[in-house]
Amino acid sequence: MPFRVLGIDSRILKAIQEVGYTAPTPIQAAAVPQILAGSDLIGIAQTGTGKTAAFTWPILTQLMSRPAGRAGTRALVLAPTRELVVQIDENVRAYGKHLPLRVTKVFGGVSERPQISALRDGSDIVVATPGRLLDLMRQRHADFSALEFLVLDEADRMLDMGFLPDIRNIVHTLPKQRQTLLFSASLSREIEALTHQFQRSPKTVQIGRRANLAETVTQLVYEVPHQLKMKLLLHLLREPTLNMVLIFSRTKHGADKVATKLEQEGIRTAKLHSNRSQSQRLRALKDFKNGAVRVLVATNIAARGIDVDGISHVVNYDFPMHPEDYVHRIGRTGRAHAVGDAISFATPDDVSALRSLERFIGRGLVRKRAEGFDYRAPAPVQALVHRAQHRQTSPSSPARQHSSNGWRGPSRGPKVSRGFWNRR
């Protein structure tokens, strides 16, 4: 389907051509006509399929096709993370570059003053995280009395992050007569309940099945003892095909440790998590996008905000605790019909989570062993201590030895973890 049959403003079509797109994606082809027709919409599609453009194009077209009834913001887009707000803002500006529209982004972690100034000067479109926007609204810095469009982007993630009370407070102040669009990577019962609160007889556009994973992503599981995860990661990174790698850690501290170790090994690495300042986060994304760093280490909270083409591999260094997190993480690769690999490290402690994930996605994941990697792991430190204490207190132990520096036992060689790979 050519773009021109969608009914998009010609100036937006010009911008789309300048970006280099030649045909709409399925979610765009299905959603744009419905939005242009004035319907509330629920858009469900996996990440990387063009959902942002699917609501941006028709909103921009309608804003230009009818004059503003009164002064004030006409379109509000809510997103869960500052990275995603920045990404949406960039998209809106790129597609609206030939239009006389003003766009403002609002998020925490930076000074309020420029955002307050932009809101007071007037902005046609505001892209915001719920928390910071609600703060500014309570200070009466935002005017949404003329609002025509509300978009809840990555709605499932906003629920996961506990933004529902803030969203309710924001929506309560908005005009009742508006077009409300909700986009998500999955359609859960909680999302369906949300649509009843905020939308009026919405149309539903669903591309692929629920919890659908990118068909262009090869998904592999490497079962590995916990103490060998870093060693395995370094082994895999020797392969030059892992040229643009996004690694997910469960915690900020863990992300820092992984990034520091990779840097020590000579691998150019950036990190992205909530303890980083906004300028540091933007610099990390910029360096990752332009190839200044080969690896970006991030936490779950940043998963939705990373919209970077060309990611060759996503590595779940820490196995995701929730299946939905896995879906969003691996959606960072294989975007826009490109191919990519998703690698997950699974320790014996992750067996239950791995099985839950396979039930969630409706199929088993391929297990793989790294060629040339020594899976033999040394005995855990606690086991060594226990063994030392036992020998010190057992007079019959022939291996018992003492010194002023503590226990010295005979070397028994590396211990192989057994049974884990066969418990399937």
Main sheet characteristics: 7 strands, parallel
CATH class of the largest domain: Alpha Beta
State the order of secondary-structure elements, H for helix, E for strand: HHEHEHEHEHEHHEHEEHEHEHEEHEHEH
In oligomeric terms, what are we looking at?
A: single chain
CATH superfamily of the largest domain, by name, is P-loop containing nucleotide triphosphate hydrolases
The total tally of domains equals 2
The unreliable regions are 381-386, 393-424
- Supply Rg: 25 Å
Strand content: 15-25%
Helical percentage: 25-40%
Task: Predict the CATH topology of the largest domain.
Answer: Rossmann fold
Shape: globular
The assigned structural class equals alpha/beta
User: What does the average pLDDT come to?
Assistant: 83
Widest sheet: strand ordering = 3-4-2-5-6-1-7
- CATH hierarchy: architecture of the largest domain: 3-Layer(aba) Sandwich
Give a written overview of the molecule:
The chain is an alpha/beta fold and 424 residues long. It has two domains: 3-206, P-loop containing nucleotide triphosphate hydrolases (Rossmann fold), CATH 3.40.50.300; 217-367, P-loop containing nucleotide triphosphate hydrolases (Rossmann fold). It contains 15 helices and 14 strands. It has helices spanning 10-19, 26-36, 51-65, 82-95, 113-121, 130-138, 155-160, 164-172, 189-198, 229-236, 252-264, 278-289, 323-330, 351-361, 381-393; strands at 41-44, 75-78, 103-106, 125-128, 149-152, 179-184, 203-206, 217-223, 245-249, 269-272, 295-299, 313-316, 340-346, 366-367. Helix 2 runs parallel beside helix 3, helix 3 (51-65) crosses helix 4 and helix 6 (130-138) packs across helix 8 (164-172). The two termini are 45 Å apart. Residues 381-386 and 393-424 have low confidence and may be disordered.
